[in-house]
Automatic annotation (TrEMBL):
<dbReference type="Pfam" id="PF03061">
    <property type="entry name" value="4HBT"/>
</dbReference>
<protein>
    <recommendedName>
        <fullName>Thioesterase domain-containing protein</fullName>
    </recommendedName>
</protein>
<feature type="domain" description="Thioesterase">
    <location>
        <begin position="123"/>
        <end position="203"/>
    </location>
</feature>
<dbReference type="InterPro" id="IPR052061">
    <property type="entry name" value="PTE-AB_protein"/>
</dbReference>
<dbReference type="InterPro" id="IPR006683">
    <property type="entry name" value="Thioestr_dom"/>
</dbReference>
<dbReference type="InterPro" id="IPR029069">
    <property type="entry name" value="HotDog_dom_sf"/>
</dbReference>
């Protein structure tokens, strides 16, 4: 039984790495995302949620939003070194930044958005935008959690607020930028912004992710 589980994990890792390589190759062909990849600050992170999940788990992003007309390409880029987090006088961890530079970001997500996510014609549906931001921020929160003293348990979305600044015209290649605003106990306060190839802010999001010892 242990050998079968080990073989399964190896197969999942192989599929996840192949998915990363395919998506890196795609985003290398887009001039502005090629520049992002060339900074050397970030590394591509393989995840299994797009390639192989347990039955009934994360089917929304594994199946529903993993098609040629929804999110055909998706790449998670995380800092090679975690963003600096200071302990302030209130014993809360905080980066203290509200509009970070590239070097202060924890994660970025490059994503190609297809026309099946239209609300109005050529415009990305607001619900799809929220789903994209929640998924990106949740992965970011999980990475912060693993780097903290709270290594056990799972982080869940507690609150998510989205400000829609401009219509998100699709099909398009977009980027989600994520950074930590504050960490207090079992709570992570994380921000994100959705930008286009001209680095125009299309949407902004902020939310709280909370650590739970139970699994849903």
């Amino acid at each position: 039984m242990q050998e079968n589980q080990g073989s399964l994990r190896a197969e999942e890792k192989t599929r996840a790495m192949a998915d990363v390589e395919a998506n890196v190759a795609f985003f290398q062909m887009v001039p502005w995302t090629r520049q992002v990849l060339a900074t050397g600050i970030f590394e591509a992170i393989p995840t299994s949620y797009r390639t192989s999940r347990q039955a009934g788990e994360d089917t929304f992003f594994h199946e529903t939003l993993n098609t040629s007309s929804t999110f055909p390409h998706w790449l998670w880029l995380a800092r090679k070194q975690a963003a600096t987090v200071e302990l302030d006088r209130s014993h809360r961890y905080s980066t203290g930044c509200t509009s970070p530079s590239l070097s202060q970001l924890n994660s970025m997500f490059l994503v190609e958005v297809g026309e099946a996510l239209w609300g109005f014609k050529h415009t990305m549906h607001g619900g799809a935008i929220c789903a994209l931001l929640d998924q990106a921020l949740s992965l970011c929160a999980g990475r912060y959690q693993k780097a903290s003293e709270h290594t056990n348990g799972t982080v869940y979305t507690a609150t998510l607020s989205v400000n829609f600044r401009q219509p998100v015209i699709v099909p398009a290649v977009l980027m989600v930028e994520c950074w930590l605003e504050q960490h207090t106990g079992r709570k992570w306060h994380i921000h994100a912004r959705l930008v286009d190839g001209q680095h125009r802010t299309l949407c902004e999001a902020q939310g709280v992710w909370i650590l739970s010892s139970s699994v849903l």
